[in-house]
Amino acid sequence: MTTTARTAVIHEHGGPDVFRIEDRPVGDPGKGEIRIRHAACGLNFIDVYQRSGLYPMQLPQALGMEASGTVEAVGEGVTHLKVGDRAAYAAQPPGAYTEARVMPAAQVCPLPDGISFDEGAAMMLKGLTVQYLFHRTTPLKRGDTVLFHAAAGGVGLIACQWARSEGITLIGTAGTDEKCQLALDHGASHCINYRTQDWAAEVKALTGGAGVDVVMDAVGADTFDGSLNSLKPLGMMISFGNASGPVPPFNLGILGPKGSLKITRPTLFTHISDHAACQDMAQMLFAKVVSGDVKIRIDQRFPLVDVAEAHRTLEARETTGSTILTL
Ligand code: NDP
After folding, report:
1. Where is the Enoyl reductase (ER) domain (predicted)?
2. Which residue ranges does the chain devote to CATH 3.40.50.720?
3. Ligand 1 touching residue 199 (CB < 6 A)
4. Full 3-state SS string of 59-101
5. Residues 82-136: pLDDT tens digits?
6. Any atom of ligand 1 within 6 Å of the Cβ of 69
7. Which DSSP state fits 109?
8. How high is the ipTM of this complex?
9. Atom of ligand 1 nearest to the CA of 155
10. Ligand 1 mean position to 207 CA, how many Å?
11. Atom of ligand 1 nearest to the CA of 218
């Protein structure tokens, strides 16, 4: 059976205007695949990197890495999903900005009844990222202190609540006082407006001069130096994004005199490429959401046809929490 699905596609890299809405054929799933009819799609900053060309790819390409919906057909060998299941995913390859698609099943997870489709679309990529940052990247224990940039964003508000639920002190940063208040309301112990304050000095003051155990920095170019200077000796720098631009090349030798610092540059897709690991990580995320420890805050909704406007808003730092595309 072949149907068509309205899909947001790019034929060239560039600004938000490169999106075109096209009808694309959707066939039957092959071995290890499913066909899913989406209820909603998630918007993520990685979509901006892919659209702009910071992360180049073969074109034309439908974008989007996260969505929720109903399983319509199941290919040979898929055992963890069946027709009619509610499901959600963060997955490669891109192509989630569409009404329906055929895709590999391994990273698609059955969605618990207590989680809505909108929440599913808003939380998988961001929530699984927080899961691996807090549980699979460096040992973190109750009482540890983490510095987290862009704490009022999609990943950020989940991280604030996750930290609170694990007894971890999270010092957030954000670009406005209103965003700082939002991060505090979601569990950040402190939040610094990094556009108006000397945030690295403030982090030192908040930690009695000691610095933090871990920095989680997805702002990139603008914050990298200050982040390293905010760490305790033996502290861990997790550089996991480039919202302000990629971190410029640096001399590894600077990590020694700053206190034998550690640094890693992880990506979610390494962690979820293993089917069992992906499903386990999702179970932990779902438990946090179903228990109410983590609430998924959707502050922006755009119809799929307005995907260009959604990208403009995200890049302009005008969003808080998660953004979804509705169908
Ligand atoms: P957000 O909702 O957090 O939006 C990005 C935020 O970054 C903005 O709202 C803004 O917050 C802040 N920011 C700082 N400087 C800039 C700038 N120059 N331009 C634009 N924004 C800026 O996005 P997501 O939740 O989708 O993602 C957060 C980050 O995490 C991204 O960098 C993303 O790439 C990264 N990420 C990495 C993953 C990985 O596995 N490596 C997986 C998932 C996300 P403010 O106004 O408060 O400064």
Report:
1. 14-325
2. 138-265
3. no
4. CCEECCCEEEEEEEEECCCCCCCCCCCEEEEECCCCCCCECEE
5. 999 999 999 999 999 999 999 999 999 999 999 999 999 999 999 999 999 999 9
6. no
7. E
8. 0.99
9. 25
10. 25
11. 32
Show the DSSP H helices in the chain as ranges: 45-52, 117-135, 154-165, 177-185, 199-206, 224-229, 268-272, 275-290, 307-315
Residue of 41, 46, 124 to mutate, ligand 1, most atoms within 8 A of C-beta: 46
Q: Tokens 């989940």 map to which residue? A: 158
CATH topology of domain 138-265: Rossmann fold (3.40.50)
Fold (CATH) for 3-126+269-326: Quinone Oxidoreductase; Chain A, domain 1 (3.90.180)
| CA atoms of 45 and 43, how far apart (whole Å) | 7
**Start-end ranges of CATH 3.90.180.10 in the chain?**
3-126+269-326
Atom of ligand 1 lying closest to residue 43 CA: 26
Residue entry with tokens 């900053």: 45
pTM: 0.98
